[in-house]
Design goal:
This protein is α+β, with helices and mostly antiparallel strands. The chain has 3 domains: 2-69, Ubiquitin-like (UB roll) (Roll), CATH 3.10.20; 74-157, no CATH class; 175-333, no CATH class. The protein is 47% helix and 18% strand. Helix 10 (205-223) packs across helix 12 (286-299). It is elongated. The relative contact order is 0.08.
């Protein structure tokens, strides 16, 4: 591909050929390699920038640096600011930064790493709502009321998406032996909980957590992948899903199951899980249903205490340190077949 470009060596316009050459840029002390684009004079061999996009190569290096360091783009910062109707000055006041700082970042200047981390956190609407409440004194009453209304409208309009996003942030992890090479799906986990709630009329929280553990590890034992994609952790009570209380809260908020507090006396209560209606078999394959049924049949006659004691005999619990994540590789010696 050729283009008419003025050669400063030949002092004339020449039909220059486009060439791509490897080039290294130093961005904040880090070497960034890119495939740079130049035009070469056919007479003297001079390399020239495209006059229409003279900073293209440097911009490509900066873009690569942003990807490496997970730095927000100017467009992402502008989109976030405008989501809540903030001017640059209002945004700067909330953050305690200078107006010029926001203006520079939105024009393409790389944010500092601390500033970038703050901006990245604020993309989570709940974090921004907290910032607004903490720093509302930096705004006048009219500004605060208008921005607050925008924030609440956003939450209302995106309630379901925000709910799913929060669940994903807590439970979706890179697939590995700690997730059983499975991927978390809230709907599927909810249906697993419903399966046991329908089958077991006395499904208390501790009992459910053990059902989940045995279901995932038995499925992995048979098929080399977990049923739910959940990660498990070693607790004194036995293996439990990471952030299990939040997990149950999310499942209950779907409306598919409910929680009932049972008073056992002596200021002791238990959390009983109840299915609102029947579980949906369409979420499961025949193999998955077989594993769920096997786990239920094997454990249905155990008390919660007995199931907990059973898990204490599993290599998955015995060979994992306190509060450490449990590898699914222990499933090969699971007591259930």
């Amino acid at each position: 591909m050729c283009k008419e470009i003025f050669c400063v060596e030949c002092l004339e316009n020449v039909a220059s050929k486009k060439v791509n050459l490897p080039e290294t840029f130093d961005i904040r002390g880090e070497s960034i390699d890119v495939d740079s684009t130049y035009y070469q004079c056919p007479n003297c061999g001079e390399l020239m920038y495209d006059p229409e996009t003279p900073s293209e190569n440097l911009e490509e290096a900066y873009a690569e640096y942003r990807v490496r360091k997970n730095i927000l783009t100017a467009e992402e910062i502008i989109e976030f600011r405008k989501r809540f109707g903030l001017s640059q000055r209002q945004f700067a006041k909330l953050l305690g930064w200078g107006h010029a700082t926001i203006s520079k970042y939105e024009s393409g200047v790389l944010p500092s790493i601390p500033h970038n981390n703050t901006l990245a956190l604020l993309r989570e609407p709940e974090n921004f709502r907290e910032l607004l409440e903490r720093n509302k004194g930096s705004l006048n009453d009219r500004e605060y009321d208008r921005i607050k209304a925008k924030v609440e409208d956003y939450f209302e309009d995106n309630k379901e998406n925000l709910f799913l996003s929060m669940a994903d942030n807590l439970f979706v992890r890179e697939t590995s032996l700690y997730t059983g090479y499975g991927t978390f799906d809230l709907d599927k986990v909810t249906q697993i909980v419903k399966f046991f709630a329908v089958k077991d009329e006395d499904l208390f929280k501790l009992r459910l957590l053990k059902y989940l553990f045995y279901s995932d590890f038995l499925f992995f034992k048979r098929f080399s992948v977990s049923l739910s994609g959940l990660t498990y952790q070693r607790f004194p009570m036995g293996p439990v899903p990471v952030e299990y209380d939040f997990l149950l809260d999310f499942v209950i908020k779907t409306g598919e199951v409910a929680k009932e507090l049972i008073d056992f006396g002596y200021e002791h209560t238990g959390e009983k899980i109840i299915a609102v209606d029947d579980f949906d078999e369409s979420y499961f394959s025949k193999d998955e249903l077989d594993v769920l049924e096997t786990v239920y049949q094997e454990l249905k006659d155990y008390s919660s205490k007995a199931i907990s004691e059973l898990t204490h005999k599993e290599p998955a619990w015995l060979e994992t340190g306190h509060l450490e994540y449990i590898s699914y590789e222990h499933s090969d010696r699971l007591s259930l077949d």
